[in-house]
Amino acid sequence: MTQTAHSTSRIPDELQERISRARLLIAGCGSIGGATVQPLGRMGYRHFVLADVGTYELNNLNRQNATVDDLGLNKASVGARLLHGINPHVGAEVVSDGITEANVRALVEQADVIVDGVDVTTPSGLAAKISLHREACRQRKPLVTAWDMAGMLAAQCFDYRVVREIFDGQLLPGDERRLDTWEVIFRIAPRAHIPGEMYRELRRGLAKTDYSVPQLAEAATQFGALAVHMVNVLVSGRTLPRTVAVDVHRVAMTPGRRVLDHVQRYVEGARFLAFLPREQAWNGFAPAPVYRARRQWALRAAGTPIERTAHER
User: Fold this and answer.
1) In angstroms, rounded to a whole number, what is the distance separating the alpha carbons of residues 160 and 1?
2) Residue pLDDT tens, the chain, 313 long
3) Residue closest to 186 by CA, chosen among 143, 149, 136
4) Which of 118, 195, 238, 261 has its CB surrounded by the most CB atoms within 10 Å?
5) Collapsing DSSP states into helix, strand and coil, what is residue 101?
6) Whether the predicted model's global pTM rises above the 0.70 cut
7) How far is CA 24 from each of CA 125, 144, 146, 161, 227, rounded to the nearest angstrom?
8) Coil vs helix vs strand at 115
C-alpha cells in the first residue's frame, strides 16, 4: 500500500482529536438514532447525550440494537450501557424524557452535532422532531437525520450554521398544527427518494385505521455507517450534500430488474397520489414554492395574519 493510499484510509490525528472533544446529541435512540450509537462510540466520540422517551418492545427487535433482555428498558439507557461497554471512559448522559419543549433548548446548547432519530409516526414524535429542528436552526447547529423506507436509507444533513429554514422551508409556521400527521411527514420526507415499493406499501396500509409503518433492518442499520462519516465530516469543518441515498434493494438488482424498478417507482408514485384525497395530496406533495404561495394567498383571502419564518424575521 502506498503512503498516499494509506493516508486516505485512516483518521488524521487532528480530526481524531476533534472527535474526542466533540459533543453529540442523539435524539431518539430507536431504529435510526440507535443504529448510530455504537459506531460513533467505536469511532472515538466520548461525549454523548442520549434522549429517548421510549422503551424497547418485542416488535423493535427486527431492526434495533437490542435483545430480549432489554425489553421494557429505556432505549437511551440501553444505548449508554452499550457505549460504556465499548469505552468505559465515555460520558453518556441519559434523558429519558426524550425531546420536549421544556428541555430542547438546553440539550441543543450542549451539542456540537445533533443526530436526529426522533420517530415521526406519532403526533408527539413529530412535534418533538420539529421542535428539535427549530431549535437547531435558531442556535445554528449542524444536524444529521435519516429516513428508512423499504430498502432505501436516505440520510440528510441540515447544517443549520448556513441553512436558515427548517427542512429547507418545506413547512410553514403553524403547519404542525394545521396539517395532519401524514401531510407533515410527506412535506419533510425526502420525496425524491421514496421507492416504488414504499409507495405501494403506503397505498395498501393508509386505508387501515390501525396502520403501523413496517421498517426493515437492511435500511435502518445503514445509518450507523453513513452517520459516522457524516458526523466526522461536520466535525472536521467540511460540508455535506443535503441527501445521501442508498437503496440496498436496488443495488442488489440485476440491470434489467433495475430498469423495471425505476419505471415502477414513477407508476407507483402516480398511483399513490391518485389514491390520496386531493387536499392531502396537495398539502403533502406540492413543491415548496407553490405550496407556500398558495398558503399565503389563502391566509390573505381570509384576512389572517401570516406567521413569518425565523429567516424572514
Assistant:
1) 39
2) 333 333 456 889 999 999 999 999 999 999 999 999 999 999 999 999 999 999 999 999 999 999 999 999 999 999 999 999 999 999 999 999 999 999 999 999 999 999 999 999 888 999 999 999 999 999 999 999 999 999 999 999 999 999 999 999 999 888 988 999 999 999 999 999 999 999 999 999 998 888 888 889 999 999 999 999 999 999 999 999 999 999 999 999 999 999 999 999 999 999 999 999 999 999 999 999 999 898 888 777 777 665 654 444 4
3) 149
4) 118
5) coil
6) yes
7) 20, 11, 16, 16, 12
8) strand
If you write DSSP's letter for every residue of 236-295 in order, what string do you get? Answer: HT----SEEEEEHHHHTS-HHHHHHHHHHHHHHHHHHHHHS-HHHHHHHHS-HHHHHHHH
Cα end-to-end distance, the chain, whole Å: 55
E strands in 113-230: 113-116, 142-149, 152-159
Kindly state the cell numbers that stand for 265. Answer: 417507482
- Extended beta strands in 46-204, E state: 47-51, 91-95, 113-116, 142-149, 152-159
Contact present, 32 and 230 (Cβ < 8 Å): no
